Amino acid sequence: MNNTTHAKEQTLDDASMTSFEHIIINANLATFSAQYGFDIYKDNQDSTPYGQLENAAIGIKDGRIAWIGAHEDISAYLDDYQSARITDANKNWLTPGLIDCHTHLVYAGNRSNEFEARLHGASYQDIAEQGGGIVSTVKSTRAASIEELFAQSEKRLLALMKEGVTSIEIKSGYGLDLDTERKMLKVARQLGDKYDIHVSTTYLAAHALPPEYKSHMQDRSDDYIEQVCAWLPTLHSEGLVDAVDGFCENIAFSSEQIRRVFDVARDLDLPVKLHSEQLSNIGASALVTDYQGLSSDHLEHLSESDIEKMAASNTVAVLLPGAFYTLRDTKLPPIETLRKHQVAMAISTDCNPGTSPLTSLLLAMNMGCTLFYLTPEEVLSGATTHAAKALGLDKKGRIEVGMDADLVLWDIARPADLAYQIGLNPIKGTMYRGRWR
Predict the structure, then answer these.
(1) FRET pair for 250, CA 20 to 30 Å: which of 14, 205, 276, 342?
(2) pTM of the predicted model as reported, rounded to 2 decimal places
(3) pLDDT digits 0-9 by tens, 355-369
């Protein structure tokens, strides 16, 4: 294996070496850690692809990675461990747990009719103007009980978890009233509580204008945004909101309206992110950087001047090839310019009922390569360390001492296989906070 570093041992005494709650031996690691030479921008001549380590071992304690070293450095202590506390990776690959950093996973209903309509020539805008799109899902989600909503959403979550997703972002935004927004966020929390997965909840009431605010006589979008701003402190006080999002687009809300929502988020010390530049450029990414936003997402129409602002504010570019594919878009995100300015790029499913009914992050990674010309290293880092950054999760997304022990074991020859293979799930096991699922 070329360009591979060896594990740097953390010096520990014998007592510490025998006190790990679990150890993984005989593993190849894709760490995505700068400590082991990972540099996606290749500024360092000694950079190591994927931050990979051969023949490594990991010691885990209290749900976190406590030690990383060479396999032979732990071999003398193996007799001190019961077999149930040892995982022999058999030279298979370990990556950080995958992170799906942009999803609309909680919703009710079905919009395959719109898929058919698009195949007959209808545009995204046409469908929205005819009462379809987001508003169609709003109607179904409002009508669903919390139990029905949970049952429908659970299936999508389990599909993602089967492919190694250990952290996920779930947005509201199909309620567009206080009660249904609350219901969606509660379901997201319940999913996280039931399964071994981290769920970050995002308030997206500024997603579309609900039917009751639509009028042929006047634009009532400002009135609705006033309600969005009023609901946010209430839902935050109930422990349901981790971040705030909005849809800033010519068929949704203006940058001035989104700014009002973001001002409330800032007062509550909540991070922000934004659906930006999917259909046009109205300066949305520049807006999110004014608030030091976690991410700007979609970005097909992103300008270089806004990319420069994203670089300065350390805002992640979240790329969503599932929507690009489903909508049969032809406008590519400006990948080379994002690389030029060293903006971190994450990749996500955008799991949603209308424009990206995708529940495979592995397929999203493949699409990132085939549609957006990203490299396998870029998409895998985009589904791990950069996705963690897009959610503000500083203890996830890398394999290094002190990080959460969220890990996936894969039966693959090299990390690139995860983006190369289509339809094959080579997963051997998933660990969340130090426990195998």
Answers:
(1) 342
(2) 0.95
(3) 999 999 999 999 999
